Amino acid sequence: MKLVPDTSAVIDGRVSERVESGGDVETVCVPEAVVGELESQANSGYDTGWEGLSELQRLTELADEGSVTVEYVGRRTKPSEATGAHEGDIDAVIRDIAEEHGATLLTSDQVQAEVARAKGIEVEFVEARTRGSGGLVIEEFFDDETMSVHLKTGTKPKAKRGAIGEMHYQTIGEEVSDEETMKAWADDIENSARASPDGFVELSEPGMSIVQFRDYRIALARPPFADGIEITAVRPIVKTELDEYEFADELRDRLSERQRGVLISGAPGAGKSTFAQAVAEFLNDSDYAVKTMEKPRDLQVGPEITQYTALDGQMSKTADSLLLVRPDYTIYDEVRKTDDFEVFADMRLAGVGMVGVVHATRAIDALQRLVGRVELGMIPQVVDTVVYIEDGRVDTVYDVQTQVKVPEGLTAEDLARPVIQVTDFETDAPAYEIYTFNRQVVTVPIGDEAEGRDETGVSRLARQEIEREIRSIARGHVEVELQGQEKATVYVDEDDISYVIGKGGGRISDIEDRLGIDIDVRTHEDNPAQSSASGGSGGSGGEEGDVVTPEVTSRHVVVRMDDHVGETVEVRADGDYLFTATVSRGGDIQVSRGSAIADELEQAIDRKQKITVHPA
């Protein structure tokens, strides 16, 4: 009897088992397509590839003993066929070989067996071998207060234990984990997840797998992606209800009133996902159709809430599918990259209530993540509520609205513009204003948020704008001193007085009208701080910032800030404040050459001053 095994039968060791059972197998014809697939899997770090190659070596030993004849037949698969393995291209090559040699096809693949039977090929189907213990081998490391367990080859087991907000990273075992044990644990976890109805493999890439097994999310890292085998298992230690949080009644009313755009923010481990789960359960119990978008899926929600992951690796495709499902609310965990914010905004503007989970160390930071990613005027339509979680509790809730008004701190009526007002939900007091000031998006703290600051955002912007206007007409050095919100003193070289004031005071009057502030023009000799002035417009402190190297092009001076997209930052030279800007969606700040800001920045570059960028 001739036998042609497919890849599944070789990996499961069913070929040598069939020969050793004392049956009538005389010749085993191993397709080169099987060898190629096993080699590819082994090169990619998959254990199945190594197991299959071990089985081929066992067949060689049986052939040497005279128990069977082993032949390698057929051709290697083409790259296009290997790429389409999941679509059956390799299986088709193997079936053709079995038919060509008049052999019996041995397989553990149910679909392969059924297709072969349909084509009149003789088939011997054997059940796929069950892999893994069926349980979680590392569950012994968990107790009631353990949130996560961290295992790595060559180290002692560690865990994060304690109550939310009081977690401690501690050693939980004195025995160092060896590589053989770690490999056995990692393989067992992944195989058990594949075989058990309680688990599934969320992500499987060379060197990295993410497994969901019951309520555990487990990351399995292997070389060469990691420098050693590492297992990180996380599970929720509490499951809460919305009633357990502060502002529960107000939040319930707000979420039930209509579909909202909500950002749940907080530092890692603060309890954001736990709160999101409580919101999801409340909305589901309130007769809303609720879905989730997660990668990986680890929110602990009831079976009525369907949990979706990235479709074909893209959340945008998941969003397109969800719009057909028509949920009332979608929980998006986690919103982090630009694509995530765009998907969140797109679904929100389509009328779906959205609750996003965002990593942020301040409540306002979560909202600022939208700046540069979503058109400024659309932000309140995308997000109208920000909830900040700290130590497992609701610390701050912001209401987000748009008003047409004069920004706080300015007085001239002709400076009115659309302003995003961020209001403290508890006190109804304004906390921040976000608006466009001279083509820059700025976030200005007001009220209690502005206390303790040496210079308010409005004052800084006002001084910056006055400097820009005066430098456009003055030829020498310019310094600005604010005298409250409605008045400023400008110090210029004596030769520049007439240029700045203009004939009959017309030039300075035009500037005053544009900026809505009274300006007194004087010489540097009249400046009481002349002795300490060093040519800057007033230092902004000496704290450390990100050192950058601006690029001067034919039209712009460009500052690259890829890690700060959408953030409002200050640019300084040797600690002296230059200007404030918002990093564009492309990850840079562009200043047009010829402008006062660009001239000052270029002068700082020429003087080889250290250019730094600081959070505004």
TrEMBL record:
Family annotation (SMART domains): KH, PINc
Protein origin, superkingdom: Archaea
UniProt keyword terms in alphabetical order: RNA-binding
UniProt region (Disordered), positions on chain: 523-548
Residue stretches making up the PIN domain: 1-114
Annotated ranges, domain K Homology: 484-578
CDD domains listed in its UniProt record: KH-I, PIN_VapC_VirB11L-ATPase-like
Gene Ontology MF annotations: RNA binding
Ribonucleoprotein recorded as keyword: no
InterPro entries assigned to the protein according to its UniProt record, in alphabetical order: KH_dom, KH_dom-like_a/b, KH_dom_type_1, KH_sf_prok-type, Nucleic_acid_metab_PIN/TRAM, P-loop_NTPase, PIN-like_dom_sf, PIN_dom
Gene3D superfamilies linked: 3.30.300.20, 5'-nuclease, P-loop containing nucleotide triphosphate hydrolases
Family membership: In the N-terminal section; belongs to the PINc/VapC protein family.
Name of the molecule in the record: ATPase
Naturally occurring in which organism (per UniProt): Halogeometricum pallidum JCM 14848
